[in-house]
């Protein structure tokens, strides 16, 4: 298997696939008199497409639009501000994924809060935060729960451990998002014209291929579930082009080694046990009904929003257009702040912070004068 | 959206496992893949195994790609103007 | 006496004992320790001077410790500037309660590293701060060297870029040693004194344009600085950059980019194409240089950009490290 993995990156295969993709894209252009437009929903795909050079190699052949798949980027400003304000109380330890540390709040970042002496800790896994709670029983440990369907079961695993160990000083401030409702929202509003979707491999690993069949059945668009290596991305783009060429609305699984028809039943069981659907606010979009998950009523003692309150301050307004970027309406350079006032070192919007944010990926990998 | 890494299961201790990614190791949770066995490859996300990799499918993809390379008659490699 | 107390820093009897029993006994520099300054003669010509402070956590890590690092780091800064390292000073800030056994081990490592580069440690200072005011021990070292033949930095189109070995070993080894993110590896830090190797490379070629040791910020940041400082465009070949499997695995798990991880025993050189093989052979004859490789070319003497050619054949631009490396889920 390890040898298999190494060959995955084999440049010979990826160059051959790239040739095929370009050939098919040209056929599409000839047939429909325009360049095909696909949305990669997942932020890790955005980053992988940029890092591996696939996006650049295809820039004249396929319009790849980055979707709303970066958890940090879609989190609305008031939520980010609330999460940062949480750190201000004594006797609290705020634990977070590294992604959140530099996200600009209206009044500073978690990194600045840490520098001010607030106890903010980066963990690799939310279960590490449970262990920190176990070791610091005189303090309240709050985990900042961001993420999509891949990460929601991970948060469930932390609650399971906290429940089993009867840890009462651990809670999660939830702001999780679901892919299906946001895709429906984008498609219903018809803001972007698309020929198909490159579907998120790791969300699919939890939810299953069937979960995305609504794209074909209701919106008559093809979708291909893809892995993250250059060769996997190219293989999936090839399949997607073949479907789009024939206007064949199918959702196919091109990541079968990892993704099953029904996903991971265990992961779905645990996420539904602790969490229930809730309305969620999305950056630049507003609240979408039933588009996220929050802690179930019977586990409210783990719900940081029930346990703690934060001062509500109105978010600072900037010219940041992250909201339009995550909806695929504009490319990052169309924002006046991009690469001028807003850079990875001094980000104004979240899309510039997360390495998988569209702006950061564009800044890092696509700007070459 | 979600970083996921293929890792080989080295040891299993109840609901956790020691996994290896090219020589670097880590303890992860396996509650979502209770059927996992030593020697299996899993996808790891934020400290949990989320899926057992089906090697047959991985091999099949590779085989298909190889055929694609072999089928190329012109043998040319696409060049870019940078 | 097994731990450092505040009295060790007060200049009295205990301080004297510490100096005699620890520093002088390892550094063998009592000849210099009679005045408030070290007095010495040095050859005429151009001198090189550098200073660096070391605050590594943990203090002991696989492949080295803060003492080894503090000498190797300063010696390497001199060596990559084309200097022959000659003299060094060291200054310690120690937290009250620090085990003297550990201090001896650190000072012992410093003496060993200094010997490898034939450098004399001629002056030093110790301050003790209250428990909680520092994290164990901090060391500052200052190095002085002579420069027989300054590097020209006249980088030409077509020059080769060489790295002396795999990137990111120190960054991952120290991260794993910290134990915070649950990462476990058998990897050792590459922490090493590079003067002998660099000296051999300089003997092998008179056309080494410039050298850097890619420490914090990693290979990418060091080369971006060269590109900007000298307005040259360098193109790296992604597949040619040596990378240990463990480093690659750790980077995948935590979402790091190895090009931005710290190295403490690597040198990156820009040399004339015709001297490429001579320099490679010279470097590879040292154990710390056996994985040396040509990783790129100077594409032009304008623009000042660092580019990376991916296995797919496209290039992308690399920038300085922005902010800290943090593990990420997405």
From TrEMBL, chain A:
The GO molecular function terms of this record are:
4 iron, 4 sulfur cluster binding; carbon monoxide binding; iron ion binding
Listed InterPro entries: Hyd_form_HypD, HypD_1, HypD_2_sf
Q: Output the GO biological process annotations, alphabetical, semicolon-separated.
A: protein maturation
Q: Which Gene3D superfamilies match?
A: 6.10.20.100, HypD, alpha/beta domain 2
> What UniProt keywords apply to this chain's record, in alphabetical order?
Iron, Metal-binding
Pfam families documented for this protein: HypD
| Family under the similarity heading | Belongs to the HypD family.
Alphabetized PANTHER family for the sequence: HYDROGENASE MATURATION FACTOR HYPD, HYDROGENASE PROTEIN ASSEMBLY PROTEIN HYPD
Protein name stated in the entry:
Hydrogenase expression/formation protein HypD
Q: Upper lineage ranks?
A: Bacteria, Bacillati, Bacillota, Bacilli, Bacillales
From TrEMBL, chain B:
* Family (UniProt): Belongs to the HupF/HypC family.
Q: Name one GO biological process term.
A: protein maturation
Matching Gene3D superfamilies, A to Z? 2.30.30.140
GO function terms (MF aspect): carbon dioxide binding; iron ion binding
Q: What is the name attached to this protein's record?
A: Hydrogenase expression/formation protein HypC
Q: Which Pfam families match?
A: HupF_HypC (PF01455)
Going by the entry's taxonomy, the superkingdom of the source organism is recorded as Bacteria
Record SUPFAM superfamilies? HupF/HypC-like
Q: What species is this protein from?
A: Thermolongibacillus altinsuensis
TrEMBL record, chain C:
Q: InterPro entries in the record, alphabetically?
A: HypE, PurM-like_C_dom, PurM-like_C_sf, PurM-like_N, PurM-like_N_sf
Query: For the PurM-like C-terminal domain, which residue ranges apply?
Result: 156-306
**SUPFAM superfamilies assigned:** PurM C-terminal domain-like (SSF56042), PurM N-terminal domain-like (SSF55326)
**Stored CDD domains:** HypE
PurM-like N-terminal domain residues: 36-147
A biological-process GO annotation: protein maturation
Q: Which domain of life is it from?
A: Bacteria
In the record, the note on similarity to other proteins reads: Belongs to the HypE family.
Q: What is this protein called?
A: Hydrogenase maturation carbamoyl dehydratase HypE
To which species is this protein native? Thermolongibacillus altinsuensis
